[in-house]
Amino acid sequence: MLTEEQLLAAPEDEYMNEAQLAFFRQLLLTQAEELKVSLANAKEQLASFENEPDELDKASVEEERRMALRFLDRQTKLLPKIMESIKRIDEDDYGFCAVTGEPIGIKRLLLRPTATLCAEEKQRQELKERNYRDA
């Protein structure tokens, strides 16, 4: 199994070879398992919140519940993205921009293994969104 250092040091012409795909598959599988445990813990934590008679305690518990729900929502949305990334590995489509077909890049994939867009395309889309929001 490759290390991150070996991935980063690999020549460009070896981009998304079998060893690199195996590295990212394992990384994504590990993240999926960790996420499932995290989701179970967050659901358990939500279920354990009790109603507090004291107003100050009640406000504190409500804030904790709200934060736990936000966390749960974000994590729940991440799991399908991880599974989709694993599917792209299986289809030999992983690591390439869904819009331009250009390589996403090892550094970007190490930071965000579920990325489907290269940095340039992501910036273009964010700029469009900002322009629509500001208009």
Salient structural properties:
single chain, 135 residues, mainly alpha, Four Helix Bundle (Hemerythrin (Met), subunit A), 5 helices, zinc, zinc ion binding, DnaK_N, coiled coil
Written overview of the protein:
Helix 2 packs antiparallel against helix 3 (55-90). The mean pLDDT is 89. The protein has helices at 4-9, 18-48, 55-90, 106-111, 119-134. The protein has a single domain, classed as Up-down Bundle (Four Helix Bundle (Hemerythrin (Met), subunit A)), CATH 1.20.120. The chain is mainly alpha-helical. The protein contains 5 helices and no strands. This is RNA polymerase-binding protein DksA. Pfam families: DksA_N, zf-dskA_traR. Residues 20-89 form the DnaK suppressor protein DksA N-terminal domain.
The Rg value, from CA coordinates, equals 20 Å
CATH fold-level topology: Four Helix Bundle (Hemerythrin (Met), subunit A)
What is the 3D form?
extended
State the helicity in percent bands. Answer: over 70%
- Spans of at least 5 consecutive residues whose pLDDT stays below 50 are none
Number of helical stretches of at least 4 residues: 5
CATH superfamily: DksA, coiled-coil domain
Describe the largest sheet: none
**E-strand count:** 0
Name of the CATH first level: Mainly Alpha
Pfam family, one: zf-dskA_traR
GO molecular function, one term: zinc ion binding
Protein name: RNA polymerase-binding protein DksA
InterPro entries: DksA_N, DnaK_N, Znf_DskA_TraR
